[in-house]
Amino acid sequence: MTRRAAVVGSPIAHSLSPAIHNAGYAAAGLSDWTYTAHECGKDTLASFLDSLGPEWAGLSVTMPLKERALALADSADDTATALGAANTLVFGEGGRVAYNTDAPGMVDALAEVGMRHASRVAILGAGGTARAALGAAASLSATSVTVYARRPEAVAELEPVAQRLGLPLTAAPWESAEGCGDADLVVSTMPKGVSDALAIDWKPDTVAFDVVYDPWPTEFARLAQAAGCRIVSGLSLLLWQAVVQFRLFTGVDAPVEAMRAALPPTTADLSADHSGLVRRWNFLSLAQPGQAWLKPNLTTVKSGEEVGGPGPGRRRTCARLAVSREP
Could you confirm whether the keyword DNA-binding appears in this record (predicted)? Predict the structure, then answer.
């Protein structure tokens, strides 16, 4: 039986996800797997899910469906629950399980440029991607998170997320965003061109992460790089969140470099020696009631180690996920 997965959202025609996942299937020898794209809105997601047959392994979920996908799931991992959004649905005997791979994908993208800790984090924008940035900030042990937004009410919607993650959140007006450059990490989640207009006074050891990747480099990233900052493209986020999804869908290690090769060549300079490492993600509930966060445990484990529950061809669990970084 052909196994199927897809990305759903609107608009979806521009999505690079089919190229990334299908390249992974080919490299992993999964000749009976296929990955497609489907235009789907909030009002049609439920009926689309109901129409899927047993050949479907799961879905990648993009805007504007991430909150709706979480609501339609039978269960969810701690990260999706804490962030209030899911970008992945996995189908199995337990029904629809929702995951959020955006946050761990963001952390892995930052690890490629050597960032594994960030005390002070600045987030530009307060939309859906800002939730993933908050999850990444929790993983990086942030002690201060400032969100710069044009709409104060949007920041207010992030406050429950920050509380669940145990993060101190400060709201700042967009007009003051040019002062964000002294943070350890600055994540721009703004639409194309918006952050480019900021005259930020960068410090050289700041990491600048722009989720925009077309065109690349953005003016935001170019100016940061000119000041000596390390920069991260949205293509790196797209790659690493897909790597986590690949494992969830198929139960096998993702061929990272084959998937990277399916992307436009703008991330070639970010390629790292993965040295056969496997990153293990522990999704932990904090001791405080109502709080949860994701924390990477960088213990090295053997490639192919069993990390999930039983099931034909599947090795996954809501509590723990291993991601291969083998070339």
Answer: no
Which member of 66, 192, 203, 295 is catalytic?
66
Q: Is 203 among the catalytic positions?
A: no
CA neighbor of 86 nearest in space, from 57, 61, 106: 61
For residue range 121-145, list pLDDT tens digits in order. 999 999 999 999 999 999 999 999 9
Is residue 151 domain-resident? yes
% of the chain with per-residue pLDDT over 70:
81
| pLDDT tens readout for residues 24-80 | 999 999 999 999 999 999 999 999 999 999 999 999 999 999 999 999 999 999 999
Whether 171 is covered by a domain: the verdict is: yes
Q: Is 120 domain-assigned?
A: yes
Number of domains within the chain: 1
Q: Which domain holds residue 190?
A: 104-235
Q: Which amino acid is at 195?
A: S
CA separation for the pair 306, 309 (Å, rounded): 8
Angstrom distance (rounded) from CA 311 to CA 249: 13
CATH code (residue 198): 3.40.50.720
Pick from 303, 321, 310: nearest CA to 246 = 321
* H-helix or E-strand spanning residue 163: helix 152-165
Q: Is 192 helix (H, G, I), strand (E, B) or coil?
A: coil
Is residue 251 a part of any domain in this protein?
no
